[in-house]
Amino acid sequence: MNDTLTLTRPDDWHLHLRDEAALHSVLPYTARQFARAIVMPNLRPPVTTAAQALAYRERILAARPEGSDFQPLMTMYLTDNTPPDEIRRAKEAGVVALKLYPAGATTNSDAGVTDLRKTYPTLEAMQREGLLLLVHGEVTDPDIDVFDREAVFVDRVMTPLRAAMPELKVVFEHITTKEAAQYVTEADRFTAATLTPQHLLYNRNALFTGGLRPHYYCLPVLKREEHRQALLKAAGSGLPKFFLGTDSAPHAAPLKEASVCGAGCFTALSALELYAEAFEAIGALDKLDAFAGHHGPDFYGLPRNTGTVTLRREPWTLPSAVPFGEAQLKPLRGGDTLQWKLVA
Ligand code: DOR
Ligand code: ZN
What we know:
The structure is a single chain. The chain is α/β, with parallel strands linked by helices. The chain has twelve helices and 13 strands. It has a single domain (10-305), classed as TIM Barrel, CATH 3.20.20.140. Helix 3 (84-92) packs parallel to helix 4 and helix 6 (178-186) packs parallel to helix 8.
């Protein structure tokens, strides 16, 4: 049995860092685990311009722990009205991608896109400039069952989008279903997907074990076991189109443990450990290095990191809560013993 895992220094290709005190609280966890991260733009108000992305980048850099060389990779929030001209400014500002939130799909998505066709001139500019489109892949139609919204999105949105914009690089973020995994597997080299630790480790039973479990609630919501199995197969396939993106999404504990619970699992504290657990469970630890450190930069057209990180088989207890500004933040699996540990 392998007790030490040495990985290429990895990146997180989907992360929520928030802002101000919350940013200062959570950034050190990611900076310890990852060299770079794709930073989601769903602040209040959202990051919709290149100037806002640059200013947010400065706030993130200023919040880094002493001595950290962590690099945020900035994104902008696509709206019905993002001008095609803004894409050139985004490119010049070093923004790497725009995020598509269908309006109302998830946390802070009210300003999202109501009809993707309205954005086609902007998507064409992105295709031209080489910026990626990152997709929250759920329809928002209230008539569609919440567990079916991703599968319906594949047919209603992804398929026409790919036909209209064939050379736009698209990341289908945090996929949760066998339909999405199959779609991405069969797609050409312009389509990829990220996979979160929670969707690899849990099915929807986790939401209801012994009572309602708010810390397992994220969007897209956890699905049935057959879907989790399809995601594990994709992650362990070694296919370069699947890569790591935690979707670590901190919400203060009182907002999770409330009559209306915000969507998001906080995993930044133990992300690599959780992925190692998932890959080990399917006998695919040998595939973790490329999943965490090669496929993401290759798809984004960025250099792979140099250097390595080490995980050791060494049981440790994840804190049940950590400070979050003035509040507390409860990590997914807080209080549990994890079997893998990132060595300092
Ligand atoms: O669970 C989620 N939380 N899904 C998202 O799409 C957004 C995120 C957040 O910002 O909290
Ligand atoms: Zn997210």
